[in-house]
Amino acid sequence: MSLAGLSFNALPPIRLPFRFFITAPIFILLCTGLIAYSGPDLWLGRWQPPMLALVHGFTLGFLTMVMLGALLQLLPVIAGIGIPHPELLAPLTHGLLSVGTLMLLWGFLQFHSSFILAAMWLIAIGLGIYISALFWVLIKHISQGDSLLGFRLAISSLLVVVLLGLALLGRYLGIEWIPPSKHLTNVHALWGLVGWAGILIIAVSYQVIPMFHVAPSFPLIVRRFLTPLIFIGLLLSIALPSYSLPALSLLQGLFALVLLLVIHRRKRKVPDTSIRYWQLGASALLLTSVLFFIPEGIWNEYLDIDKTLLLTALFMYLYLMSIIEGMLLKILPFLSYTHLQQRCLIDFTAMQYIPNMHEFFDKRHGQWLFYSHVISGLILIWVLFQPSYYFIFAIALVLESTGLLVIMLKTMKLYFAVDKKISQAAKDRVEPPTASFKNT
């Protein structure tokens, strides 16, 4: 693993990203309850309130929650710049986003306009504070590294998503901010999935794949131009969707192919669960790009399923969720070890208490989680064709999210146990036992 060019001087306390990470699988568990409660009718269309609640439960409660927590650590490590006042910013954003997402889901399910209105403000304020802080540090530090450029474009996409979401929710409540339009709803989803989540994953992959898996760097032309071209495609999707969507699909397919090639060329070809997640995600993304170009006439003749619904499920669950879950299996032990190692810089004797990085993560648990994710993903595709089997997907999702939650809790428990041991050892050295002063 090459750590050249990385910085660990501006790392915020690890409990700050931990709170985002630990919340994510809890929201997935809530989504499983929603799936079981809604029954087979949930899968009949993407415009129904229960489906809107499910999608936002995944995107806000899981995807965005993990990515916000990861950015707290990635910016200091990759760019050497930290978000200002993280001790205030992180709990405030986390609390507002968590409560706002819960209220939004309940508002969709019961159509309580007061809940939806309150959720609009909570989510907008929570994400607005975070976005403002990120823009401050990303503009203040003018470095144009490939990953930082991707971060800027991803955060800009998130801002667009928030603004469009506010407008659409206002329309949902009867506020005449914008004319009724399914096109703007599609644009909102596109900017959220391809812009915010997709561009951020691409930007992170430029650093994470070579660093963790001893792989070659991505081709320079890809690192320089891929994320800007995707962002331009998103801008064009507002007015020219018939032209921009095929281009965006081609760009996504290109990234999938390059990602698989870079992974294949890695030097450290040992069994690794995290790399399997990347391979699964890249394969699902490539499949999504191929299916996009199947003509509507052929699709309707041979596939009795809404095309957009299937493509969204593949992209969101088997691509985005696969990558994020796989990165968590690397990020959690890496951050735990790194934070403890930083504590030992002022006292090298404390290194004796730090476990090996592999002790923070049991590989067998990771393999079990990966297989459960593959199974739940296949069941999800099956349920899209046969909605009556929705309960099987709910059970598979419970098992997977519970497994992820257990892995997180075990890692965090070990971290805080070692941290406490280091603190106690330092205290004992500073404060000699009282027995030594009895005869003075």
Please give a structural write-up:
There is one protein chain. Helix 6 runs antiparallel to helix 7. This protein has a domain at 292-418. It is mainly α and 440 residues long. 77% of the residues lie in helices and 0% in strands.
Write out key terms for the chains shown.
440 residues, mainly alpha, 13 helices, globular
Q: Helical stretch count?
A: 13
> Which stretches of 5+ consecutive residues score pLDDT under 50?
1-5, 435-440
- Give the rounded overall mean pLDDT: 86
Major β-sheet profile: none
Globally, the shape reads: globular
Radius of gyration (CA) equals: 23 Å
Separation of the first and last Cα atoms? 54 Å
Beta strands, count: 0
Order of helices and strands: HHHHHHHHHHHHH
How does the helix and strand content classify structurally? mainly alpha
Strand content: under 5%
| Helical coverage, percent range | over 70%
